[in-house]
Structure formats: structure tokens, C-alpha cells
Amino acid sequence: MRGNSFGKMFSLTSFGESHGPAMGVVIDGVPANLSFDLNVLQGELDRRAPGKIAGTTARSESDTAEVLSGIFEGKTLGTPIAVIVRNTNQKSADYDKLKNDYRPGHADKTTQLKYGIRDHRGGGRASGRETVSRVIGGYFASLVLPQVKVKAFVSKLGPFAYSALPENLNSSFGPYSFPDTTKNDEIKNYLEDLKSKGESVGGTVRIIVDNCPVGLGEPAFDKLKADFAKALLSIGAVVSFSYGLGEEMANMTGSAVSANASSFGGMEGGISNGERMVMTITFKPTSTVGEKAKEGRHDPCIIPRAIPVVEAMVKIVLADHFLRQNAYAI
Prior knowledge:
Layout: E1 5-6, E2 11-15, E3 22-28, H1 38-48, E4 65-69, E5 71-72, E6 75-76, E7 81-86, H2 108-115, H3 131-144, E8 149-157, E9 160-161, H4 184-197, E10 203-210, H5 224-233, E11 238-243, H6 254-258, E12 267-268, E13 271-272, E14 277-283, H7 291-295, H8 303-326
Antiparallel strand pairs: 1-2, 2-3, 3-7, 4-7, 5-6, 8-9, 8-10, 10-14, 11-14, 12-13
């Protein structure tokens, strides 16, 4: 099975299955002598970890990071960095009914058709638990570009919608990453109601990037927008990507679109222009519904726990392109 690596100058390879011994990642291309803080890395993993947000999966994992290589005395060595997170709370019996029952929209059937074998427990390699590796990669990517601020937030989740761009990117949007934090209790109750009914819901996430260097992106095939799209669409439940005004441009004239540079979401010709980046992605509802959802430990909405994964993939793309751009310096 190929397709488990991402990036060129800054690259990561993830490994592990949802109900195997551990999830892990090998990250290559991280420059030497960058300061490493295990507590900060653990904080990012805690944001994604199951069992911490009311209304989401009942699986509870500490997701404790174990650094195997590439770090010495609090500094990166410039060598491959390997990190694992052990799986400690598997309940494989919860997935017995999925062994011969394929969930529409999930990788169950296509994995079986492609390889002739699959680990049905928790989705195996296709589980959202694979994203642990991405969050770890995103932390190390942030060491390469510490001045860049990446913030993702829920712009739509079921009946809850937030259309504005938040003014303060340093503020916490609470456990559901919804800027209007007065809605937190309503969102909690909504998700718990969905869970009790065996139902799920999708939504949209907006991403803001500030302080991005000018000139990132490698036309023609490795445009920055193209790599963002690949990175974000590689997240299991993401079904669409746009940037700037996105689909709104289909209903606008050229003069209206060109009246404001912000229409282009911080990228022109696939190259960063130094302005604020704005991107939007859509998440499908979780595939496990009905009695299977009630019996297992599934998220009625994956989005709140996916926010740090989204931010991580954006950071990974930016770090990769920053190092590629610097490779031209003489």
C-alpha cells in the first residue's frame, strides 16, 4: 500500500491501524537546532484526542506522544523524527458487525475490493485515528515557520452557522471551535441528541492563515492552492475545498472579483502574495449511522475533533513550500 507519505522537503510518513498496538509517524526534513517542547506537542494531541469533548466518541485515549528519534537535549537533530502514540482503549468487539457490513461513504468496501483484505476494527488504516500522525507532523511544521498563525474554526455544523471572520485569532473558540461560544451548550445538546438517535451531521470549516511569507508555491503542478487542496482533501471526511471567494465567483463579474485582492484568498497564480489566506472545506456526515452508531463508539460529527488536524495539514504544506523556496537561495 502506497500513499502514506506527504511532502517533499518537509515530509511525513504515517503508519498504524486504529486497533493495532500504536499509531506513528516518521518526519524528515526538519532543520536542526529547533527548540522542541514535548508539552506543546502533547497539547496539540490533546485537542484531537477522543473522549474529551461532550457529544463525540466515547473512546478514551491519552494519546501520549513517545519520541523515538531525532531529538536531543530539547533540540531537533536534523535527522528523521519518529513519534508513536500507543493505542490503549480498543474495544474491537464493537466493530464485529462491520466485518461483513460496508458503510456507504466509508473506505470499508473499496479497501476490501482493492486489497482483498482489510482490518475492520475501527476502520483500520481508514480510521480517523490515523490523523494522530498528522497532528504530530503539524507541530514540527510549526517549528519551521513559528511566525505563521493558522486558525481553523467551525463555520457550519448542522443548524449552527457563523459567516464572519473572527477578529482575534488568539482567542479560544471552546471545545467545539465555534466562534460564537454562547452556543456551546446548544451544540453539546444537539450532538448528544444526534448520538442517541444514531444520526450524524456534516458541516464546513474555515481556515485563516496570517503572516505567510511571499512566494510560496511551485507552478505549474505544485501550486500552493493545489497542495492545500490535496492535503485537506486527504483528511478522510473532507469532500470539498475552496479558497478566497471560492464558489461565490461563479455568480460575480470580473470587475467585482478584481476590486479587492482579498477575493483570491492570499494566493495569486498558485503563489502566496503575503496577504491573509482564507480557505473553506466541507466535511461529510460520519458514515456510521443507525444501530451501528448506537452500538459502537462513533462521532456524530467529526468536525470539532478534526480542527487540529486541519490546522496541522495547512502547517505541513507551508513548511514544505517554505523549505522548497529556501532551497533556491544561494
